[in-house]
Amino acid sequence: MQLREQHDPKATPAEIFLSRKEAANFLGRSPGTLANWARLRVGPPYYRPEGGNARYYRPDLAAFQTAMRAVREAS
Q1: Superkingdom of this entry's organism (predicted)?
Q2: Which of 18, 27, 36, 55 is the least buried, fewest Cβ under 10 Å from its Cβ?
Q3: Predicted model pTM
């Protein structure tokens, strides 16, 4: 099964699943912040393939970013 992002039908899995460094860039945070969030079980969800590094699903990052923006605006 090949995964494709809804808004970009030509997106490859490598473009949809981001490394921690790429996810940090996407969110404007450091990779260390994402590592801390993962350790504390807060922040965006991530996937760790067996024996691999954490991967972040781009739509999950976008949803997390939108939710955080809404929280900041409500404060």
Answers
A1: Bacteria
A2: 36
A3: 0.78
Backbone φ/ψ region at 20: left (φ over 0), alpha (ψ -120 to 50), beta = alpha
CB burial of 16-36 (b: ≥16 within 10 Å; e: otherwise) equals bbbebebbbebbeeeeeebee
- Answer yes or no: is 70 within a domain: yes
Domain total of the chain: 1
Q: What's the whole-number average pLDDT of the chain?
A: 87
pLDDT tens-place string over residues 43-68: 999 999 898 999 999 999 999 999 99
Specify if 10 maps to a domain: no
- Whole-angstrom CA distances from 52 to 10, 48, 57, 64, 68 are 25, 6, 15, 23, 28
**56 has which bridge partners?**
18
What is the dihedral angle through the alpha carbons of 17, 21, 25, 31, rounded to the nearest 10 degrees?
Answer: 130
